């Protein structure tokens, strides 16, 4: 099930996406009663997807990122695979949705794309045992862990490098029925392929990451875990269009603009 968050005529709602580009009339949204973090019903009121603005599929309290979770990506930046997952935060103010602009930060001269599978948490959880990880996940979406690489290398903490406004595009929706163990991940810039990998190449699995994170902190409904990026990261420039495509989910597209 694909659950999207959208706005129309100034109103914000969630809906189930039905159909695709090959469907007569295109895909539609069946508006749901309530929100996806509890039992909900479809209203039967349907709106063409083309008539709405897609928003970030969730508004997370926090985004927990994981660094160097693909060995080839760690190597391309001259790093070893860490002994334990390297976790960092991206603030809620970094989150944008599909079609929203990535504003190039004025304090950086080297901003990179990082295509990632994002895990969306469905219920409050702490100290989750491995066998219960699936129970706390709502679904999965596409993410771009946009990074000011020069700032990341210069500063010991990654807060500014990975937490600046608009550095966390998410979308286009949450797919709730998906086996995430071996999905293709691709990133293109202006239609040119930059990254191509599979989630099966992760050093540590989603179960490993959720167990590790929740040993330390409580995750809330709508929180997001970024699972790392495959090799092939590279620069973004003002005017570029960057797209993250994940098998079984869809494509997240954003354009890079100069921060005004």
UniProtKB/TrEMBL annotation:
PANTHER family with a match to the protein in the record: ACYLPYRUVASE (PTHR11820), ACYLPYRUVASE FAHD1, MITOCHONDRIAL (PTHR11820:SF7)
Transmembrane segments annotated in the record for this chain: none
Residue ranges annotated for the Fumarylacetoacetase-like C-terminal domain, each copy included: 62-256
Domain Rv2993c-like N-terminal: 1-57
Protein name: Fumarylacetoacetate hydrolase family protein
Keyword Hydrolase among record annotations: yes
Lineage top rank: taxon: Bacteria
GO MF annotation list: hydrolase activity
Protein source organism: Streptomyces blastmyceticus
Keywords associated with the record: Hydrolase, Metal-binding
Recorded coiled-coil stretches: none
